[in-house]
Design brief:
single chain, alpha+beta, four-stranded mixed sheet, about 35% strand, globular
């Protein structure tokens, strides 16, 4: 180990965007005191905005055909947070969403039902306000990682109306909605560095770390676990029904099928760009795809290709970090995807490093329990609570004979984006 210290990568394969963070220290870490990630009195300002258009021309959805419609969705959500104490902050996020849907024509044909819809549109508005409480914490026994938890208390109000083509309100078409919500949002994936490292190309993001004198370097795969969830919800109905009858998790059945396909999924590759991409391709226009699909492929091949494609995307993140001098030696896999022995083995083989998991798989709930224990006085500090409550399972090691097989497939995978970059831009303009 360089300088006598281990470098650890943490991966969350959750059903959504994947984030990677970390740090490396060139000195021992005193976990008896509270590390400072963000100092008291700091303002943190951010937010998001999006505008999406759609245009359906003679489309079909289930029993509805001949759909001709247009519309748009506009969303803005500015946010701010003020650190009342070191690592502890409160703030607010305000959101507005406007949706317009105009239906020129559509036909419904189902058994004895024959209905035509013509010339109406729907406009809806939604307003949301969130109170934010954020707390930065170390991972615990790993000692060199930091995560954060954000508690969100939200209230939203929405209204909408359906009108005919002349803008006249249709009777009994006005609607309103009210909703209250509580969300717990944890951090994602971590690497560790002892010095400030910034990628000039903007492929990864650098932040202050929860441990003083250290930095997080974060890479993001937008649709990691989301890729497998998308495949499950759209192409694995039989597995979902069988799992329900057996009292089984459908992902377990999907893992068994994927394990029957060889490394490389019989020459089938998957690009996990379902929501554009951030690392290493900062490109909102790129899209997911299966490359090499042929008549010989089965669902098990597609399943394995999805899992391998996400793994290769994470390898892309590691390669960028390697260019910056950040070289992890161990990986900790968390979240839903981390429960899959097959997926963990893929990660170990492709990353060529051991992959471990935490004993407690409910990361957000555990984080809340840790903070509650400190707040109630059961533990003197968050590091002490982490040492007592966070435990790691034995790691899976790379299988030597698998490594060169994955390297051949990954070499081809790295060419997919560049080969299709121009086509993504053309597709976005359609």
């Amino acid at each position: 180990m360089r300088n006598g210290f281990r470098l650890i990568a943490v991966v969350l394969l959750i059903l959504g965007p994947l984030t990677a963070r970390g740090q490396r220290m060139d000195r021992g870490i005193d976990l008896t005191s509270q590390p400072c990630f963000v100092k008291k009195g700091t303002w943190m300002i951010g937010g998001g905005a999006s505008y999406m258009l759609h245009n359906n021309n003679d489309s079909r959805l289930l029993v509805v055909n001949g759909i001709n419609s247009t519309g748009y969705t506009l969303s803005v959500s500015p946010a701010f947070c003020y650190m009342l104490k070191d690592n502890k902050g409160v703030g607010m996020r305000i959101g507005y969403r406007r949706n317009m849907f105009k239906l020129d024509s559509a036909k419904v044909n189902f058994e004895d039902i024959d209905l035509s819809l013509n010339n109406f549109h729907k406009i809806s508005h939604a307003f949301e306000i969130q109170g934010i409480g954020r707390y930065y914490i170390p991972v615990g026994q790993l000692k060199r990682l930091g995560l954060f938890n954000e508690l969100q208390l939200s209230y939203s109000y929405g209204q909408g109306k359906v009108m005919d083509g002349h803008g006249n309100k249709i009777n009994a078409s006005y609607e309103t909605s009210n909703a209250l919500g509580i969300n717990v949002c944890p951090g994602f994936m971590a690497f560790i560095t002892d010095k400030l490292a910034i990628d000039p190309k903007g492929r990864v993001h650098t932040f202050c770390c929860a441990v003083p004198g250290a930095w997080h370097v974060m890479g993001v795969t937008q649709a990691a676990g989301l890729s497998l969830k998308w495949f499950r919800d759209n192409f694995c109905m039989a597995e979902k029904e069988a799992a329900a009858l057996m009292g089984e998790d459908p992902y377990n059945l999907m893992n068994k099928q994927a394990a029957q396909s060889p490394i490389g999924a019989n020459k089938l590759l998957y690009a996990p760009y379902l929501m554009g991409e951030r690392t290493p391709h900062l490109d909102a226009d790129c899209r997911g795809m299966f490359f090499g699909l042929s008549a010989m492929h089965t669902r098990r091949d597609l399943l394995r290709a999805v899992m391998e494609g996400v793994t290769y995307s994470l390898k892309d993140c590691l390669n960028v970090l390697a260019e910056m001098g950040v070289a992890p030696e161990t990986m900790l896999a968390c979240g839903g995807g981390g429960k899959s022995p097959l997926w963990r083995q893929m990660l170990a083989d492709v990353f060529q490093m051991p992959v471990a998991t935490t004993v407690n798989t409910e990361g957000p709930a555990l984080g809340v329990a840790i903070l509650a224990g400190v707040g109630a006085g059961l533990y003197a500090s968050v590091p002490e609570a982490c040492r007592a409550m966070i435990h790691v399972n034995p790691a899976q090691n790379p299988i030597a004979e698998n490594v060169p097989q994955y390297e051949k497939v990954y070499a081809l995978y790295t060419k997919l984006y560049q080969a299709n970059k121009g086509l993504y831009k053309e597709l976005a303009k359609l």
